[in-house]
Amino acid sequence: MTIHKKHIQQINDELYDIFESSFDEIFVTDANGYVLVVNSECEKNYALKVEDFIGKHVKELQEMGIFYPSATLKVIESNQAIELVQKTNSGRYLHVRTRPVFTNDGHLKSVISYSRDLTDLMELKRKVEEMEEQLENYKKELNEAVDLEGIVTKSEAMKKVFSTIQRVASVNTTVLLLGETGVGKSRVAKLLHQLSTRKQHPYHELNCAALPEQLIESELFGYEGGTFTGAFREGKKGIIELSNEGTLFLDEIGELSLSAQSKLLHVLQDRTIRPVGSTRAVSIDVRIIAATNQNLEQMVEEGKFRRDLYYRLNVVPITIPPLRERKEDILPLVYQFLHHFNTVYERNVRLSPKALDAFLGQEWKGNVREVENIIERLVVTGEEMITLKDLPFAKEFAIDPPVHTLPEMIEHVEKEMVIKAFEQHRSSYKVAEQLGISQSQASRKIRKYVSDSTEH
């Protein structure tokens, strides 16, 4: 073989490498529409071998359902380049650019098509459209929610609670809020105050479980100066007196000692208080709203809570259901807290549909408070788009990674061999020769493995 022939062979090899290594499918027919040559990308697009195309007419391939419509036929009819989207027999979508090639005297010589697989893009577009539709549905659900002075709900159970609140807010009666920790009892207490005729007057809260027993009475009723070591010389008003003409919310009422319960009963009956260490009675006008997550009836039977105080407090009981029993309230709450904390921290954090679905799937043992805490954490620490992996409870939705199967291991070894051979020779012809495979197989594997490794 002469040097000239070797040079021509080298050029042909390089052209073949370019032809086979193209990310686009290249499809060439003669002027009549008979297939002359295609690259191996066709095998992926149509699930047929290269040799199945050679010599066939594009009209025959179209009638067989291999692809539709045929861009080549349209170019032969019009002698003009066109672009179209084509669907294949394997369910893939291709963006086809087809152009005519003419002889020097202007006659049609051949038709060349370049096709790029758009299936992943179209699937991505479909998913984006689904996400947008899902988000719109969530927004519609949010718009259907009832908002009462900043507390949102969509559930019938909470709408009944709202109805009761609106009826009793303006009535100067004691209210007992019942429900698990975190359901929003303090929010309801504030709402009762805001809707009442006392809204222009003080509102105070006291968590009865947060103070030691020896301090609870002085906090509630106040004390005279010099009553005990560490007391203010001039004395101090208790929270009941500070709430005069307003509302006092006593959370965890079941934690009061029997002694404090007795004095609170006296307040409810006589509308007076007696500060610790004092003999004087102070008249007060205060509305008491109490709350507990305990079973007060059982505590009464066990002698841990005064029966008469229980009856005084239990004039209007309002039970707030846990979040797991009103799942339709989760998304309105999520959006409410998201808007609030985005405003507070000057962020623009959003949740993906899958993240929202994860919120719906949680049991929320900590109820509304737990949702609020998690949203605040995500707004403070998260990216602008919160996905499933960003959620603190994401592990509950994680899928176990697949074990290495024999085909996976074989593919791993094959990849290493192809990459090593290509780095050594930089030619699909030489790679094919070293690995004992055809050149078209070598080109496909180089495109698959070498491109992947460089992209990653």
TrEMBL record:
Pfam family, any one: AAA_lid_14
GO MF, any single term: DNA binding
SMART domains registered for this protein in UniProt: AAA (SM00382), PAS (SM00091)
All copies of domain PAC, residue ranges: 78-130
Coiled coil: 114-148
Keyword vocabulary terms for this entry: Aromatic hydrocarbons catabolism, ATP-binding, Coiled coil, Nucleotide-binding
InterPro entries, sorted: AAA+_ATPase (IPR003593), AAA_lid_NorR (IPR058031), Homeodomain-like_sf (IPR009057), HTH_TyrR (IPR030828), P-loop_NTPase (IPR027417), PAS (IPR000014), PAS-assoc_C (IPR000700), PAS-like_dom_sf (IPR035965)
Domain Sigma-54 factor interaction: 151-380
SUPFAM superfamilies associated with the record: Homeodomain-like, P-loop containing nucleoside triphosphate hydrolases, PYP-like sensor domain (PAS domain)
Domain PAS per the UniProt entry, residue ranges: 11-64
GO BP, one annotated term: regulation of DNA-templated transcription
NCBIfam families: sensory_box
Protein's name in the database: HTH-type transcriptional regulatory protein TyrR
Organism: Priestia megaterium
